Amino acid sequence: MAKTIEVRDKPGKWVVRAGGAVLGETDRALELIEGDLPPVIYFPKGDLAMAMLEPTETRTTCPHKGEASYYAIHTKSTVIDDAGWSYETPHDAVAAIAGHIAFYPDKATVEEL
User: Fold this and answer.
1) What's the CATH number for 5-112?
2) Nearest to 23 by CA among 45, 7, 40
3) Model pLDDT for residues 63-113, shown as the tens digit of each residue
4) What is the pTM of this model?
5) Which of 9, 11, 48, 77 gets the highest tally of CB atoms within 10 A of its CB?
């Protein structure tokens, strides 16, 4: 059976923090639900401090979403490698996540305010 993927607006105000810094807040978050995996919150790039995020060379491919590119988080005290990812040109089924970044829960804290 094919894996189901759903992308939907996630109401509320969401924040992402790492290394003692706030990377962004949004009330335009998206939630991606993929099969039995935990839901993932995606932040619009326009609501993130992109000066703190540096693209890395890392790339992965998901058969359901497409090619992911990764970002390191730069704070005053640390660099957190490959902490977030983005699908710049995702497959049609998840096209809404284009222009958004999600973060690994062990590298950044994402929570609803």
Assistant:
1) 2.170.150.40
2) 45
3) 999 999 999 999 988 999 999 999 999 999 999 999 999 999 999 999 999
4) 0.95
5) 48
